[in-house]
Amino acid sequence: MLIFSLSGCNGEDAAGNGNGDDVEDVEDNGGVVEDKGDVEILYVEWECATASTYVVKTVLEDLGYNVSVTSVSGPLMYSGLASGDGDFITTAWLPITHGEYVSEYEDGIDEVATNYVGARLGWFVPTYVDMDSIEDINDNLDKLGGQIIGIDPGAGVMGLSETAILEYGLNAELVEGSDALMVAALQDAISREEWIVVVGWEPHWKFAAWDLKALEDPKEALGGEEYIASVARLGLEEDMPEVYAILENFNWTAAQIGEVLEMNMEGGTPEGNARIWVDNNQDVVQNWLP
To answer: From the CA atom positions of the chain, what is the Rg in Å?
Structure first.
């Protein structure tokens, strides 16, 4: 559903000077900083991925890098890194959700560091829905319209959701869409106090916006607690050691990413909100710098 447009971003000396050669001085935030070359970040338009991508983009731009971001599907994040068509991602859900992608492309990618702990996938309902477990879904199919509202088909959580439907013997349809469509369906159902089950994950701003609960998953079909990691193409450490070092140091808490998620939910642009957050949290950012 998303177009993967590729530009010279593999760290080579083509037009991008990705290795930092031919340094120029450019004006940035009122001061002169070194032009250190081009960086390409790949990401999927999930809320958490958007937040972390634009915050790291802002930090790198402040150091003098020309940073581009490209929106792709989940599988293309990893194939893009492995083929050198992107430099890194900040939202690899491991060890389960994206484990298949990491295994497939392990010879061409580099797991740099964990940047968030305590992530989890699940199926979520408004708290007024009188269900506590995935096992309750078949008994309430009429109230749910026979559907479980999902996101983009390339997401790892969708594959796990298909597995969960089989393992629990559910007669529900898993509806493909996107993060935005899932949130819109959830918002509409809540406004009408209708029953709905959505595929989701934490961290996400929807938990600040509405009272939601996770359905119990006794078979652990959707996995347990996970961590989010930054993953780079092979060779980034040698080509751009400063960028790599920042990825090694980059990590934040639920409260910190939650601030960005809430800002993005309330309005403005992800890039503008990242700029505000970075400016207001220089004590955190300084700990990410090499």
So the answer is: 20
User: Is the same domain home to 189 and 152?
Assistant: yes
User: Are residue 210 and residue 134 in the same domain, yes or no?
Assistant: yes
Could you give phi then psi for residue 212, rounded to 5 degrees?
A: -125, 160
Two tokens, residue 117: 């702990």
260 in Cβ contact with 51 (< 8 Å): yes
DSSP 8-state code for residue 204: -
Q: Which residues pair with 91 in a beta bridge?
A: none
Q: State which amino acid sits at residue 36.
A: K
Q: Are strands 173-175 and 147-149 parallel, antiparallel or unpaired?
A: parallel
Q: Are residues 89 and 174 in the same domain?
A: no
For 16: left if phi > 0, alpha if psi spans -120 to 50, otherwise beta; the answer is: alpha
Quick check: is 230 in a domain? yes
**Structural domains counted in the chain:** 2
**Is it the case that residue 1 has pLDDT exceeding 60?**
no
Of residues 136 and 33, which shows the higher confidence score?
136
State pTM to two decimals: 0.69
Neighbours of 275 (CB within 10 A): 19
CA distance 164 to 239: 42
Q: CA angle, 95 as apex, 55 and 155 as ends, to 5°?
A: 65
| Spatial separation of the C-alpha atoms in residues 217 and 70, rounded to whole Å | 34
Does residue 210 sit in the same domain as residue 230?
no
What's the pLDDT score for residue 5? 34
Residue 121 scores a pLDDT above 80: yes
Claim to verify: residue 107 and residue 124 sit in the same structural domain: no
Range of the domain at 46: 24-118+226-288
User: How far is Cα 123 from Cα 121, in angstroms, rounded to an integer?
Assistant: 7
Q: List b or e across 101-132, with b for residues whose CB sees 16 or more CB atoms inside 10 angstroms.
A: bbeebeeebbebeebbeebbbbbbbbeebebe
Q: Which one, of 76, 70, 72, 85, lies nearest residue 104 by Cα?
A: 76
Judgement on whether residues 105 and 124 belong to the same structural domain of the protein: no
Q: What is the DSSP letter of 267?
A: S
